[in-house]
Write a structure and sequence with these properties.
Layout (H helix, E strand, L loop, with lengths): L1 H15 L10 H4 L5 E6 L2 H4 L4 H9 L2 E4 L5 H4 L9 H12 L3 E8 L19 H19 L5 E6 L12 H6 L3 H12 L4 E6 L5 H16 L6 E4 L2 E3 L5 H13 L3 E10 L31 H20 L4 E6 L32 H17 L1
Parallel strand pairs: 1-2, 1-9, 2-3, 3-4, 4-5, 5-6, 6-8, 7-8, 8-9
Helix pairs in contact: 7-9, 10-11, 12-13
The structure holds ligand G3I.
């Protein structure tokens, strides 16, 4: 009843005054001439098509990345037993609302069931067996969603801080070329899909150099990589805008576009290195590290808005080198940063608050597009 009254009031406003808007203009429309904007979603965000959360998703974003339901442990928890139910619902929601989907993620050392790395009699599988499992997974998943999931994070977080390849079961069992193999299988399974490498802290020069080397390896092997995802888990102060811009320029020089694939701005203190998203990290709870339980003070809210706007001004400057910017979660209550690296904190890293109200950061990044329009004139 209330919803009907609200819809009637909105329709009246639109028809007779043309001026009643329920909040900021759609973010995705402001950025349409420049690059795509997306959000990570969990299943609650769109379970009810008429919920406020689903409305925000549809209004402000053009691309969805499932936060968890397309990881290996969700899609193939047991050998050969796929569970596509949750992913199917997401893909259908996207289709109905003309949204793109980025499949996240095919090859990762986390969220992969133990059986994948187990062979006969407690021994690890052979290289051939693990490659066959990888190919079967990619064929099944990309085969099912061909034409409905437009892009894939093929390999996630394969690099150490010094730019060398991380020691994971994938690498130990298959060898360094597990990355080439994953791209080869994905390209064969869906030739039209966009394929990405995705990692955190790529602003750090040594890790970035490792990613550039990885891109070159794929190119030399004749494998197309469409873009590199800089995850963009930043804080209020680190990295500098320049450091991230330098990374985008380096990838451009290597012949690939960039995207900011998991952006959020951590406002809480922590002892971990900025941007580190290694989910094994854990720090002890300490009230001093959880200062904004009852809300974000206005001065921090304003710093958050400025920080988002500074990044988006740079993205606008480099728009020809950027495919997309995705924020990692719809509202502050959804964010993984409430649990990482300390469990049970109250973080405020996103564009909408816990009540789904737009934060000043949203308006600030919309306004950044107006400045950029004026600068062009
Ligand atoms: O689904 C289980 C549930 O059954 C169980 O009761 C509950 C108890 O803790 O856990 C649930 O699983 C959690 C899952 O999220 C779904 O909510 C896992 O414990 C938790 O570790 C997992 O965290 C996700 C994390 O990746 C690990 O997969 C975060 O939501 C997700 O935001 C985060 O995303 C990653 C990207 O994939 C890669 N880049 C870094 C980024 C942040 O870590």
């Amino acid at each position: 009843m209330l919803r009907t009254l609200a819809s009637l009031a909105a329709a009246f406003c639109l028809l007779f005054t043309g001026a009643c808007s329920a909040g900021p203009a759609p973010l995705r429309d402001a950025y349409r001439p420049h690059f795509l904007v997306g959000t990570a979603v969990n299943t609650r965000n769109y379970a009810d098509e008429n919920s406020e959360e689903a409305r925000l998703v549809k209004t402000h974003f053009k691309v969805l990345t499932p936060e968890n339901i397309m990881k290996w442990d969700a899609l193939q928890p047991l050998p050969g037993q796929f569970d596509f139910r949750a992913a199917d619902r997401l893909v259908e929601f996207a289709r109905k609302n003309q949204l793109y989907v980025v499949g996240h993620t095919l090859v990762w050392h986390n969220q992969t069931p133990d059986w994948v790395f187990e062979g006969e009699a407690g021994r690890p599988p052979t290289r051939e067996l693990l490659l066959a499992r990888l190919r079967a997974h990619i064929d099944a998943v990309l085969g099912r969603y061909k034409g409905r999931v437009q892009a894939w994070d093929v390999v996630n977080e394969a690099l150490n801080e010094d730019g060398s390849l991380r020691d994971t079961p994938w690498r130990r069992i298959i060898g360094d070329d597990y990355i080439e193999k994953a791209f080869e299988y994905a390209r064969a399974a869906d030739p039209a899909a966009h394929l990405y490498y995705n990692d955190y802290r790529l602003e750090s020069p040594s890790k970035r150099a490792g990613a550039v080397a990885l891109v070159k390896r794929l190119q030399i092997a004749g494998l197309r990589i469409d873009a590199v995802g800089l995850q963009g888990h930043v804080t209020l102060t680190q990295p500098s805008i320049q450091e991230q811009e330098d990374a985008i320029l380096d990838f451009h020089r290597a012949g690939v576009k960039s995207m900011i694939s998991e952006m959020d701005v951590d406002v809480l203190p922590s002892t971990k290195a900025w941007g580190d998203a290694d989910i094994r990290l854990k720090e002890a709870a300490d009230p001093a590290f959880n200062p904004y339980v009852s809300g974000l003070p206005p001065e921090i809210q304003s710093q958050l808005a400025t920080r988002y706007a500074d990044f988006f001004r740079m993205y606008l400057r480099q728009r020809d080198k950027i495919v997309r910017v995705t924020v990692w979660g719809l509202n502050d209550g959804d964010s993984w940063l409430n649990e990482f690296p300390i469990k049970g904190r109250t973080n405020h890293p996103l564009l909408f608050d816990r009540q789904n109200r737009p934060k000043p950061a949203l308006q600030a990044i919309i306004d950044a597009t107006k400045e950029s329009r004026n600068a062009v004139r």
